[in-house]
Amino acid sequence: MAKGYWVSVYPAISDPESLTAYNKLARPAVQAGGGRTLSRGGRVVAHEAGITQRVVLVEFDSFELAVAAYESEAYQKALVALPDGVQRDFRIVEGID
């Protein structure tokens, strides 16, 4: 079964400190859904139209688990805490077997 991945890229974060409330709710919601954070805000080398802002990569054992974790009540509560000053491009993608 192919793994599932959350890929989040943040083109703009006006106040990085404001992500604290979201992170406190999102981290346990992701873990409860079986997600494993592979990368979170580390070094980035951008090419072509890429950006160097925060990038987060989370792995799940399947695409279906990744979708279910996003749709979970716990993660939906975390999304409400995502600050207005944060622009995010979010994808759920299926891995290759």
UniProtKB/TrEMBL annotation:
Domain DUF1330: from-to ranges: 3-96
Coiled coil location: none
Entries under Pfam families matching the protein: DUF1330 (PF07045)
InterPro entries for the chain: Dimeric_a/b-barrel, DUF1330
Protein name: DUF1330 domain-containing protein
Originating species: Nonomuraea montanisoli
